[in-house]
Design brief:
With about 100 residues, the chain is mainly alpha-helical. It has six helices and no strands. The relative contact order is 0.09.
């Protein structure tokens, strides 16, 4: 009786749904879609790589928390509060991390 409607699960599927809802897409809309898809693809590759890293490799990895936060916001996964940076979500050794866990 009801159609089999599958909600979008991946970044690309969500972007495709958003893009398909634009009545008259422009070149700028397409370019924005392309950039957001590239960022989502980069994040997916990073997550897949990080999944196989040891805790020591993750701890020693050099990263830019502000760049990671921008990527997360653009991919639709923003930080949980304005008091959190991207590294605070994954780094348990930071001095202020315990305060964020308790808050």
């Amino acid at each position: 009786m009801f159609p089999n409607i599958k909600p979008p699960f991946t970044h690309i599927e969500r972007l495709l749904v958003e893009f398909s809802n634009i009545k008259k897409p422009t070149i700028a809309d397409f370019m924005a879609f392309r950039v957001r898809a590239q960022v989502g693809d980069y994040l997916d590759k990073y997550r897949a790589k990080a999944k196989n890293m040891t805790p020591g490799e993750l701890q020693n990895e050099v990263h830019s928390s502000s760049r990671l936060a921008r990527y997360m916001a653009r991919s639709g996964d923003p930080r949980p509060s304005s008091r959190c940076d991207a590294h605070a979500m994954i780094s348990g050794s930071h001095a202020d991390a315990t305060k964020e866990y308790i808050a």
